[in-house]
Amino acid sequence: MSAALARHCDGYLASRSAVLLLPALAMALISGDPRWLSAGMLAVCCLIAMERGRLGIRAAALQAVLALAGCLLLAWLWRWPVWFALACGLAAELGCRLGRRRAAWRSVANFTFIPALYLGYEMAERGAVLSAELPWLAGGALAAWALHLLAGRVGGAERKPGESPAFGLAFVCVGLLAWWAAASRLPYGQWLVWSAASVCVGGWAAVRSKSWQRVSAALIGVPCGVALGLALSDSAPLAWAMAAAGMLSLTLFRAYRPAFAARSMLAAAHLTLVGGLGLARLLDVGAAAALVLLVLAVGGWLASPR
């Protein structure tokens, strides 16, 4: 039983993520201040980057600083959609280039960009004062670094780098969607932007495979989430608990598809609870994947000899 569970769940990283996230959730519920949860989310993303990247002490500290700075930078740039788009596009493209050099660097880049995009967009959307958010976010980054320092993995086996996507693919697709999300003040626009960045993983076959994994998982998770949201009553504590569960799904499941299905279910349930369109999660995933495939196909056609 335990061996079968270990094949499907990463108990090592999930338990360490829970150590960071559950106290933050508890303090958010007790105090009614969602900044505790933001700190916990940043801490979990930083820990994932440090652990999967097998970063040393100095490299882990640098990653935490970059994630923190990215949150503040994207929140500040959001008011200027063109600059916000350029920053998001460059970050996504850099992650692709680094991933081609070393597989672990892809995880480090992703989990530096993810909290910057999600928390930065959310802070900008609600008009947060960045100086008031800084102590909470800095505390989360510091907590992740301290836990990694005390009980983290450093060095070890290196996976073979993956295929590099077409040059500029992530920059164009992520930048375009980031501009649209910021310019139109799209609610939860960070989901759409990351949906494009996450499928820029290689050539046509790799992008198509990753897109299908996400779309098929969302097709299962989103309807379940909508049904769950309709069955529950709206409350801030419940919404925060769903957000925390979504973060834990990043580390609990080893396979990508069940992890993404769980996150899609929780996101759709949250949207439904607050009176939004739960199916927007599925639309984000499908639209972003379609755009990346379209840009990749057009680029290949233009580059082919005629």
TrEMBL record:
The keyword Ribosomal protein does not apply. InterPro entries: Memb_transporter_dom. The keyword Transmembrane applies. Keywords: Membrane, Transmembrane, Transmembrane helix. Residues 178-295 form the Integral membrane bound transporter domain. The chain crosses the membrane at residues 12-30, 60-77, 107-124, 136-154, 166-182, 188-207, 214-232, 238-253, 260-279, 285-303. It comes from the Bacteria. It is a multi-pass membrane protein. Its main location: membrane. Pfam families: FUSC_2. It is found in: Membrane. This is Integral membrane bound transporter domain-containing protein. It comes from Pseudogulbenkiania ferrooxidans EGD-HP2.
